[in-house]
Amino acid sequence: MGKIRAHLPVKLFAAILFNRNIQPESIEKTLTDLFSPIENRSDIFPFSHSEYYGDEMGSDLLKYFVVFQKLIPPEYLISAKHLSNKVEDVFIESKKTRQVNIDPGYISEAKILLASTKNYDHRIYLGEGIFGDIQLRLRHKQYHENDWTYPDYRLKWVKDFFMEERNKYHREVHKI
Fold first, then answer.
1. Is the separation of the CB atoms in 41 and 9 below 8 Å?
2. Is residue 55 part of a domain?
3. Do the domain assignments include residue 94?
4. What is the CATH number of the domain that holds 106?
5. Which domain does 104 fall in, by range?
6. What is the per-residue pLDDT for 58?
7. What does the mean pLDDT of the chain come to?
8. For 61, phi and psi rounded to 5 degrees?
9. pLDDT at site 108
10. CB 143 within 8 A of CB 159
């Protein structure tokens, strides 16, 4: 029988998709007030991987990732998703025009997990209306996709970004 023990804390990150009318600094200010200072951010890139947000947010969207300094218990991801949805509401231009989409997730030793409000067959219910979606799995010191992994998480530079953050996280939790 396996021994039950507490999970190590994890590293919170956010995937930020935004309309070009919004300044990323304003989003970051709100998020750092809620979570912690930002430890690292990826380059901003054109989001052309899906038409899903087009009707609601417009075209020519941009995206990037931020990683927060403070480690969190994994179950805090539920609260982080609720809080990030409230931040999105701050940036709504009208009842139909969302300017920002924020998907919080965490980096653990074994995976990159995103929070979602949508239920699909590959997502696990975490509680309070939030599901966990494993985007990348660590095997043999490399990230591997799943059949459902979002196209931007499949990009080599995105995997490299998260691997660098995962390695920093590993050193932090093990005090190496």
1. no
2. yes
3. yes
4. 3.30.70
5. 10-174
6. 80
7. 93
8. -85, 160
9. 97
10. yes
106 close to 72: Cβ distance less than 8 angstroms: yes
Which residues are CB-neighbours of 14 under 8 A, at least 6 positions away? 31, 35, 65, 66, 68, 84, 102, 103, 104, 105
How many separate domains does the chain show?
1
Query: What residues contact 36, with CB distance under 8 A and at least 6 apart?
Result: 12, 68, 69, 70
Tell me the C-alpha distance between 123 and 132, whole Å: 5
pLDDT digits (tens, 9 = 90+) for 57-84: 888 899 999 999 999 999 999 999 999 9
Residues, the chain: 176
> How sure is the predictor about 95, in pLDDT bands with cuts at 50, 70 and 90?
low
| Amino acid, single-letter form, for residue 160 | D
Is the pLDDT at 54 greater than 80? The verdict is no
Read off the pTM. 0.93
Residues paired with 101 in a beta bridge: 17
